[in-house]
Amino acid sequence: MPPLFPALASKSDRQALRFGDCALTYAELTAAASTLAASLAPARTVAVWATPTIETAVGVVAALLAGVPAVPLNPKTGERELAHILSDSEPSLVLAGPCADLPPALAALPRRDVDVLAADPVELPAEPSDGSAALIVYTSGTTGPPKGAVLPRRAIAATLDALQDAWQWTADDVLVHALPLFHVHGLILGILGPLRRGGSVHHLGRFTTEGVARELAADGTMLFGVPTMYHRLAEAVAGDQRLARALSGARLLVSGSAALPVHDHERIAAATGRRVIERYGMTETLMNTSVRADGEPRPGTVGVPLRGVELRLVDEGGREITACDGETVGEVQVRGPNLFTGYLNRPDATAAAFSRGWFRTGDMAGRDPDGYVRIVGRKATDLIKSGGYKIGAGEVENALLEHPGVREAAVTGEPDEDLGERIVAWIVPADTAAPPSVEELADHVARRLAPHKRPRTVRHLDALPRNDMGKIMKRALHD
Asked: d(Cα 195, Cα 25) in Å, to the nearest integer?
């Protein structure tokens, strides 16, 4: 199989990675990653403590070179969720930056610090097969603990090569972003994408509008972000000429992970003359569609299927919808080399996710006459997209029910100008005279799961609306 990162063989002095003041050329990255990779061969799986640092990038590249599946760990994950991921994936060791402070849940796991200063490259084994597991990325379901989506090497290569075609992505591009490195958007698209092309990535570490302006004004050609980031750029750009010039000079502004509101599209376009383009993907499928670089950026759409991706819409009976009228809506199903191979240790969930070879995304969409896809929402009501994250309502509800002041709980999402959606907790308190506050419940959930999964709004009820079978009727909550 051809190498996943052909540019590493060049050992050139071209810059590959930069995180703040720390940078590596391709020659330096090859030396650091190959040295680490040589020590990973006996491992079954490795966990990577995925802080927004250059060590995370080197650790993941090393695991991919060694052919050892890597499990990116969100550093903000709560104790229970982290314990589940470790028990499910059974990593042999954890890779981390030398200064990283690891939580107690990782204490029993051998630790290997990532050294980015190796002097000489080490010879590597042959490239693994394209069907072998590359990454295991945990995704929140609507109920129960997160599931590990096993992503093969072919899926990564297929998605990144399809985006090369759609975005005219070349080795001359310099990507700027501040995305987390424990999910598909920030890690696969934002780090592995530039490395596969032989280009460069400048990671901001932490998102700021000032950082975006600085890096794009220097030599950045592309910007990746989530709607929350673009909302903040839209808020700032009208009064910040430096930011406006930097955004207008970028070749490509890409938003993903949730829909970007039309209002933010228009504010950025008015101030910069540049249109943000959107794409559509998920952990299990990587990227499915995108507005092309040579296409029409159209707010509210996610473009057309990428090269190699088959996409269809089906009605409730599973029949394919052929209408392209922009109005007829069906569930999105996809197939192609971009798909995952299954959920780790969950053959039942894997089987349920497919219909005769088509992956059932659970997303609802329509198609315009020219083939542009418009995502209109989830088939179910239990997946919330907040700040670029996909959050399962079920796990938040379970955490809330552990609070002594909560008798019943339901969780939904509501539109939020900054986050896309905010998490709303509907609570029947144990003591109506002293109901728990939003701050108390937010802290409670953040400790158990992760800060981005905390409720932003709490509403107290005497009872939750239920049907005859006892199921909570979430649509009735907002009514």
From this structure: 11
Q: E strands of 395-463, at which residues?
A: 406-416, 420-429, 457-460
* CA 112 – CA 89 distance, rounded (Å): 18
Please tell me the distance from the alpha carbon of residue 126 to that of residue 147, in angstroms, as a whole number. Answer: 30
- CA–chain centroid gap for 340, Å, is 14
Instruction: Read off the pLDDT band of 471 (50, 70, 90).
Output: low
- Edge-to-edge strands of the sheet including 420-429? 406-416, 420-429, 457-460
Distance CA 206, CA 177 (A): 9
Q: Lowest-confidence range among 65-79, 355-369, 392-406?
A: 392-406
Residues in the chain: 479
Tokens read off for 468: 């005859």
Give Rg (Cα) of the chain.
Answer: 22
Q: What are phi and psi of 414, to 5 degrees?
A: -130, 150
Condensed to tens digits (0 to 9), the pLDDT of residues 32-80 reads 999 999 999 889 999 999 999 999 999 999 999 999 999 999 999 989 9
For residue 25, which amino acid is it?
Answer: T
How is residue 81 written in tokens? 């969720």
Q: Indicate the helix (H) or strand (E) that contains 134.
A: strand 133-139
pTM for the whole structure: 0.84
What proportion of the chain, given as a percentage, has pLDDT over 70? 96
CA distance 291 to 372: 8
* CA atoms of 136 and 64, how far apart (whole Å): 12
- In this predicted structure, the answer to whether residue 470 has a pLDDT above a threshold of 60 is no
The first and second tokens of residue 284, run together, are 């299990």
Contact present, 305 and 280 (Cβ < 8 Å): no
Helices within 219-323 (DSSP H only): 227-237, 241-249, 262-272
